């Protein structure tokens, strides 16, 4: 893919995220691929900005192709060329291509930001003992956990690459976000820096620096905010399906 992943594009060109219209277009095309995977009984497990690829193709009717990368090992090695999911072809876009993710930063975020039922799939009595993504188990992944990662990817695209390196940082941000119904900027801005120490404090300072840049320049619609919060719901049963999102 000529332009690489959206994670790479964010880190190299759009450090403070994309406009909402661009986010919606990118997510829609990636969700078309995810829709076909789920309908085929497959689970992506690593949906992120690092697995959404952009290609400029002058021969395409839209000039821009957006594809969702999916583990190449899923497909038979005897195939001479990658197998494409055909859902997006009606729009002149192949939504899913069997290529391995090239951005390891996005994969790392997936581990920290996995759905709670996946991250804590091997539960211990004291959850504070869980210090690493070693509790991420593939057999706990479901279509519902994929949807949770869609919400994380939306945050990535909205704010640029999220500098979150631990589960504690991620859960603090999501917990705060659920309390406030308005803009994502507002719900993140109200995190009290004095409450944070160590890594959490650094993360909050970083978020506030982001907010200073974007405040007054970009507003997210209520529909977008609700989509993100619905996808990040801690309850599997309340998360929307891919069909609902489309």
From TrEMBL:
UniProt cross-references to PROSITE patterns, sorted A to Z: PROTEIN_KINASE_DOM
A GO molecular-function annotation: protein serine/threonine kinase activator activity
Domain Protein kinase positions: 1-246
Entries under InterPro entries matching the protein: Kinase-like_dom_sf, Prot_kinase_dom, STRAD_A/B-like
Family: Belongs to the protein kinase superfamily. STE Ser/Thr protein kinase family. STE20 subfamily.
Protein name, UniProt field: Protein kinase domain-containing protein
Organism of this sequence: Solanum pinnatisectum
């Amino acid at each position: 893919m000529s332009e690489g992943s959206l994670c790479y594009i964010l880190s190299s060109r759009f450090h403070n995220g994309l406009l909402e219209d661009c986010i919606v277009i990118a997510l829609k095309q990636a969700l078309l691929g995810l829709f076909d995977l789920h309908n085929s009984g497959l689970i992506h497990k690593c949906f992120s900005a690092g697995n959404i690829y952009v290609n400029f193709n002058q021969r395409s009717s839209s000039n821009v192709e957006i594809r969702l990368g999916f583990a190449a090992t899923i497909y038979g090695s005897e195939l001479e060329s990658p197998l494409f999911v055909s859902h997006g072809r009606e729009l002149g876009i192949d939504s899913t291509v069997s290529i391995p993710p090239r951005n390891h930063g996005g994969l790392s975020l997936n581990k920290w930001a996995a759905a709670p039922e996946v991250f804590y799939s091997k539960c211990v009595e004291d959850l504070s003992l869980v210090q690493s993504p070693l509790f991420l188990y593939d057999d706990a992944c479901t279509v519902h956990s994929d949807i949770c990662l869609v919400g994380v990817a939306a945050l990535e695209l909205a704010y640029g690459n999220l500098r979150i390196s631990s589960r504690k940082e991620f859960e603090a941000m999501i917990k705060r976000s659920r309390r406030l119904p308005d803009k994502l900027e507002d719900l993140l801005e109200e995190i009290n820096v004095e409450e944070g120490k160590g890594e959490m404090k650094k993360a909050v300072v970083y978020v506030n620096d982001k907010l200073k840049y974007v405040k007054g320049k970009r507003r997210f619609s209520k529909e977008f905010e609700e989509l993100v919060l619905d996808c990040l719901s801690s309850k599997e049963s309340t998360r929307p399906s891919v069909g609902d999102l489309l």
